[in-house]
Design a protein that fits this description.
- Chain A: One of its GO terms (biological process) is tRNA wobble uridine modification.
- Chain A: Belongs to the ELP6 family.
- Chain A: Pathway: tRNA modification; 5-methoxycarbonylmethyl-2-thiouridine-tRNA biosynthesis.
- The complex is a heterotrimer of chains A (343), B (387) and C (326).
- With 343 residues, chain A is an alpha/beta fold.
- In chain A, strands 4-3-2-5-6-1-7-8-9-10 form a ten-stranded mixed beta sheet, sandwiched between helices.
- About 19% of the residues of chain A have low confidence.
- By secondary structure, chain B is α/β, with parallel strands linked by helices.
- Chain B has one domain: Rossmann fold (3-Layer(aba) Sandwich).
- In chain B, a hairpin with a 6-residue loop joins strand 1 and strand 2.
- The two termini of chain B are 13 Å apart.
- The N terminus and C terminus of chain B are likely disordered.
- Chain C is of the alpha/beta class.
- Chain C has a single domain, classed as P-loop containing nucleotide triphosphate hydrolases (Rossmann fold).
- In chain C, 29% of the residues lie in helices and 17% in strands.
- Chain C contains eight helices and nine strands.
- Chain C is globular, with a radius of gyration of 25 Å.
- In chain C, 34% of the residues are buried.
- Classes of the chains: A alpha/beta (343), B alpha/beta (387), C alpha/beta (326).
């Protein structure tokens, strides 16, 4: 099979530009995951400027609008994204240093903040000032310290987040605490803070792309018992969408999570199923394009990893061409995308 | 003679592909239980079952920092056997084994060590020598191919018998006997984390203990997390299967895996008859795992197949089907291209091994010759047939 | 008899849809749109807005006065073209939404006395299934307060168009004895328009004509990993574009009307077009291919492959002649 460039030509029109305030939905299933496609989105947005930066530092403005990306990942670690992006020739750590890219870590400490930290946050509610005084001592590359926090909202775990950010340099770690909409709002503030930091170094023509990797997990792991339903998640997402140019969301579209809750189903769907289905389908109604990944119906094939169907979502315009393509992922992570019948 | 030459060339090639203790090894140094993957060099550790190692997308072992979910239909406990091999391998490799949810008796039922996986293979091939003589010499390699599913990616064969004896203790994977009990000095190193009745999530305490145990240990110590029969109502409180408890736990486990990515692995078994794959909860548990393998035991053991005369005396009839739904690393990248995915696998649990091999319906009776030739395994690669 | 019936139906029902979509004579104070991923309501909502604008541009026709369009966006993030007022309702309580909707409408003094108002809710689902909305939320009174005149003196005719996503699963009812939100909506609405994709309608008809099981699309396929089945293979061929509207209308007299229409894609006509663009589904050449000119409507003789192609007279002669021979 011939190898293709990091951005497969057939996909380039779908990856390279997202209209303003558009939502792109990427759905995956157990056997056909979406990480490779997210990496291609990253590449499409970040590679051009990083290349020009590498060759001529001054050519940045020549490109016109610059693109920035904030990636929020709930199921995969920074290490994974960094290593896989490297295979595509993207140095995410360097891009983060250049304020082109920011990573928000929804995996490491989402539900279990380290014990030392929980003790610190729980014990002194009025001890915010000593914690904050330590802040300026830490080197914060490039950023205007305190700008985000003061302008957006006084986040309770602010000091902690800032600390871990300086420790890791890139990844802001999300923490889910409490329940219901309040907990979601706190997460939103944390992400919005990162977005604000990115925006602070942006020109008007620059575009900020927000990629949220599997927010559906957040819904599944909290659910109606904790006062969070599909509607709340969708509203949470819309609120985030309003901060950025365009949004890409990945979620699972496995049969048990979508079809168990269908109206034709005769059995009662579990809340985790019906909420997921409601979330996924209502997002598809909002989306401009829905990129659906699945495995071949005929079973595994030697040179086909899966099928990518690109459909217009409920919020589509006529400019989007619908397509169904096959893709193959080589062992080295390279991807070939081709039409049915081609190879 | 070409036969001899070819064999020598082969063993050299395999050794070059995956030398244990290679200097470039990124894992904790000089740890025999860790080996770089022949596929991309990432550190892997053995599951204690050679044929399961070979199923894992060319890495010839479970990559460090990954979780494997073994699901089982019905009321049999084949998955438990895999889990015991995994735990026993950890003990023998002097890794720290953390067992969640079961009492310490579980640790006393680990299978006894009988040598390295290679030594068992050798013994077995001795036994089959007579049978082998009947097979044309050009099929000689195919026998090996069948024994180790991944063929060329198989665990490196021991270079010479003498060397193997000397390195008995540094093998990557060992062989165990289910009827014996493991007696090893480091068996006392196993820790058992019981489930405490608690007000909130029953998993919080477990996760915290695992995390502190790994964090406080020296970075050179390798850990294995063993979770038998997750959510089994005889061990877990009834509300453990609430998504906000179990899914947050698995997410936390994933976080632990990513935080200490070079020194932890985990294996979980799940009873599918209680938690069917068609439910959204189980699908989320699968989505949170790096590898998902489903065991479908045949209903009446293997009676029909055994009496049909289809199986030869040396080939045990399969006891069930095995399906791979997701493989570590491979599927994280987008997956689906591995030649082990989508094939039908059968498994055979005998006293000394859990064997996974390509499933094929037994050939017609009377076609003994073809059957013996094809019994060992899947289709050979084209290169294997070329002279 | 059939052709007469059809032309009668055509005249009446085209007039009806025209009135409904152009909000003439306040034909329907509450219209419920039922869409799905296979056929979203976006084109129809755009058509509502276009007509509201087209009528206001066309100042010659005084009968069509200005229509003020308010879009309540529970899903939409930015104001679409042609909308006079956009109320982002995300994360707002129903009472706040009602207040805002009332506030964005220009006071009756500045506007003409007969100014009509069109209020569109892009998707009612989030409001119905929101956990933020307390148990006291009462859908009928919420909808009623939206179209109620802001002050007793204002003679504003408001029409409300509410879209409901049929395929988004609802939540279990808090009160198992109260009617579901959807049945409540369909009961309250004077007209209910269900949207279908034309190509799917054609595929179903083709299957029905062959007595095959009707095909299903998208979510109904229940195929793993498939959310949308619609693929515009026919795009650009001008073949099966457009959307099918299944209208159920309750007249003031209490009688019901059921009719199927086709709304052609917006690219087929100019935004200012006043002439009706909607046609009956039965009049579509793809749905009802024109009959052979010589086939009679009441010719019940089934055609067989052994048809000899005889004229009526020849056949009568042959049939009539046979007994005489025997």
């Amino acid at each position: 099979m011939p190898s293709q460039p990091p951005l497969p030509p057939l996909l380039t029109p779908y990856l390279s530009s997202q209209p303003e305030s558009s939502l792109t939905l990427v759905s995956s299933i157990l056997g056909a995951t979406s990480n490779w496609l997210v990496l291609r989105f990253l590449h499409a947005s970040l590679s051009a400027s990083s290349n020009s930066n590498a060759s001529f530092g001054l050519e940045e403005s020549h490109n016109g609008s610059k693109k920035k990306v904030v990636l929020v990942s709930f199921l995969r670690s920074w290490e994974f994204w960094r290593a896989e992006a490297k295979r595509l020739g993207l140095d995410l750590a360097r891009l983060a240093g250049q304020k082109q890219f920011a990573f928000v870590d929804g995996l490491s400490e989402l539900f279990c903040a380290p014990q030392a930290e929980t003790a610190a946050t729980i014990a002194p509610p009025n001890a915010g000032s000593p914690a904050r005084t330590t802040l300026p001592l830490r080197p914060q590359p490039g950023a205007v310290p305190g700008r985000g926090p003061s302008s957006v909202a006084p986040v309770p775990n602010n000091s902690y987040a800032a600390r871990s950010q300086s420790e890791l340099g890139i990844a802001k770690k999300l923490h889910f605490s409490g329940r219901g909409i309040g907990a979601l709002d706190a997460l939103e503030r944390d992400i919005a803070l990162v977005i604000q930091q990115q925006r602070s170094t942006m020109d008007d023509s620059d575009e900020l792309l927000l990629i949220i990797d599997q927010p559906d997990f957040l819904l599944a792991a909290t659910g109606p018992v904790m006062g969070i339903g599909a509607t709340e998640m969708a509203e949470w997402l819309s609120a985030l969408q309003q901060n950025v140019h365009a949004t890409i969301v990945t979620l699972a579209a496995d049969s048990p999570l979508i079809h168990n809750a269908s109206t034709s189903g005769n059995q009662m769907a579990a809340p985790v199923e019906s909420e997921h289905a409601a979330f996924a389908i209502s997002l598809a109604h909002r989306a401009r394009s829905v990129m659906q990944l699945r495995t071949l119906e005929t079973g595994a094939a030697r040179d086909v990893s899966g099928v990518l169907r690109i459909s217009r979502g409920g919020g589509a315009d006529d400019s989007l061409d619908e397509r169904e393509l096959l893709y193959y992922i080589q062992r080295d992570g390279g991807v070939t995308v081709f039409g049915r019948g081609e190879s | 003679m070409s036969f001899r030459k070819r064999n020598i060339g082969l063993s050299v090639g395999v050794d070059r592909a995956a030398v244990p203790n290679a200097p470039a090894q990124p894992a904790p140094e000089s740890n025999p239980g860790i080996r770089p993957s022949p596929d991309d060099g990432r550190p892997t550790t053995s599951t204690g079952t050679p044929s399961l190692d070979n199923l894992l997308a060319g890495h010839a072992g479970l990559p460090m920092g990954k979780t494997l979910l073994i699901e089982e239909n019905g009321t049999t406990d084949f998955a438990g056997a895999l889990l015991r091999y995994y735990a026993a391998e950890g003990v023998v490799q002097e890794q720290k084994v953390h067992v969640v949810g079961v009492p310490e008796q579980w640790g006393r039922s680990l299978p006894g060590l009988i040598g390295t996986a290679e030594s068992l293979n050798d013994k077995r091939s001795d036994k089959r020598k007579d049978e082998k003589m009947k097979i044309a010499w050009r099929y000689e390699r195919l026998g090996e191919f069948g024994a180790g599913i991944a063929g060329s990616r198989d665990a490196p064969a021991a270079a010479s018998p003498g060397e193997q004896d000397g390195k008995q203790q540094v093998a990557f994977c060992h062989a165990f006997d289910l009827t014996k009990r493991l007696a090893h000095p480091s068996i006392t190193n196993m820790t058992f984390t019981p489930l405490m009745p608690s007000r909130g999530s029953p998993f919080t305490a477990v996760l915290n203990r695992l995390q502190t145990a790994i964090e406080s240990d020296s970075p050179s110590v390798v850990h294995r997390i063993v979770i038998p029969s997750l959510l089994n109502p005889t061990m877990y409180p009834p509300d453990a299967c609430q998504p906000e408890y179990v899914l947050q736990f698995l997410h936390g486990l994933k976080a632990v895996m990513s935080a200490y990515t070079s020194r932890v692995t985990a294996m979980i078994t799940l009873p599918l008859s209680l938690f069917p794959r068609s439910s959204g909860l189980v699908r989320w548990m699968e989505l949170l795992s790096d590898g998902v393998i489903e065991l479908c035991p045949f209903p009446h053991s293997s009676d029909n197949l055994a009496t049909s005369g289809a199986a030869t005396s040396s080939e045990e009839p399969p006891q069930g089907m095995l399906k791979t739904h997701r493989l570590p690393v491979l599927h994280e990248r987008g997956g689906g291209s591995d030649r082990n995915v989508g094939l039908d696998w059968a498994f055979i649990l005998s006293r000394r091994r859990f064997e996974i091999k390509p499933f094929s319906l037994p050939p017609d009776e009377g076609d003994k010759e073809a059957q013996e030739a094809s019994a060992p395994g899947g289709m050979p690669k084209k290169s294997d047939l070329e002279f | 008899m059939a052709p007469v019936n059809l032309s009668h139906r055509r005249t009446h029902n085209l007039l009806l849809i025209s009135k409904l979509l152009s909000l003439r004579d306040t034909a329907s104070p509450l219209t419920l749109l039922q869409d799905s991923l296979e056929q979203p309501a976006t084109p129809l909502i755009r058509e509502y807005i276009r007509r509201a604008k087209a009528s206001s541009c066309n100042s010659v026709d005084q009968l069509l006065s200005k229509v003020h369009v308010t879009l309540i966006g529970l899903e939409t993030l930015k104001q679409p073209d042609g909308v006079d007022a956009f109320v982002s309702a995300c994360r707002k309580s129903p009472t706040d939404i009602v207040k805002e909707v009332a506030a964005v409408y220009p006071s009756s003094a500045s506007a003409g006395p007969s100014k009509r108002r069109l209020i569109i809710i892009d998707a009612i689902n989030p409001l119905i299934s929101s956990k933020r909305v307390d148990a006291g939320f009462h859908l009928p009174s919420f909808l009623g307060s939206l179209i109620a005149p802001t002050s007793p003196t204002a003679k504003a005719d408001s029409s409300l168009v509410v879209n409901y996503h049929q395929d988004v699963p609802g939540l279990p009812q808090q009160n198992p004895y109260s009617p579901s939100p959807l049945s409540m909506l369909t009961y309250l609405a004077t007209s209910v328009i269900t949207l279908h994709s034309f190509s799917h309608i054609l595929a179903r008809k083709a299957a029905r004509d062959r007595s095959l099981v009707a095909p299903v699309f998208g979510l109904e396929e229940e195929q793993e990993g498939v959310l949308l089945g619609r693929l515009d293979k026919l795009r650009g061929t001008n073949a099966a574009e457009g959307i099918v509207l299944e209208l159920e209308h309750r007249r003031k007299s209490g009688r019901g009307v059921l009719e199927w229409y086709i709304l052609p894609p917006a690219s087929r006509f100019s935004p200012q077009q006043v002439k009706e663009v909607v046609t009956l589904l039965d009049d579509n050449v793809l749905y009802n291919p024109p009959m052979e000119p010589d086939t009679n409507a009441d010719d019940e003789e089934p055609k067989s492959t052994f048809e000899l192609g005889l004229t009526e007279r020849q056949r009568r002669e042959r049939e009539g002649g046979r007994p005489a021979l025997l």
